[in-house]
TrEMBL record:
UniProt region (Disordered), positions on chain: 73-100
Molecular function as annotated in GO: endonuclease activity
InterPro entries per the UniProt record, alphabetical: HNH_nuc (IPR003615)
Name of the protein this chain belongs to: HNH endonuclease
Keywords for the protein's UniProt record, in alphabetical order: Endonuclease, Hydrolase, Nuclease
Start-end of Basic and acidic residues biased regions: 84-100
Length: 100
């Protein structure tokens, strides 16, 4: 496996019917159009990916949206960076070697 899924266990967390029912339903509902919003402008390009609006394991249809590959990557990157930032903020600062 390559790309964003290489070290991820995310696929294991998806419901059994993700690829057969949920994902096709959301893409059809959203007419295979990217729902990414920048202010009042909606992308509208061809969407082939389904995204959780609020990250996590809420797989209800109202928490899912169709996105194009570009905007799904942008959103995932922002969420990953935010998670890494939260981790680094929690670490206590290192002591200066000259003060030890």
């Amino acid at each position: 496996m390559s790309g964003q899924w290489a070290d991820s266990t995310r696929r294991d967390e998806l419901p059994d019917d993700w690829y057969t029912v949920i994902r096709p339903y959301v893409l059809h509902r959203d007419e295979h159009r990217c729902r990414w919003r920048e202010g009042r402008i909606v992308c509208g390009h061809h969407a082939n990916q389904v995204d959780h609006i609020v990250p996590g394991n809420d797989h209800r249809y109202e928490n899912l949206q169709a996105l194009c590959a570009h905007h799904h990557a942008v959103k995932s990157s922002r969420e990953g960076n935010a998670a890494r930032w939260r981790e680094t903020v929690r670490r206590p600062p290192e002591r200066h070697p000259g003060l030890i």
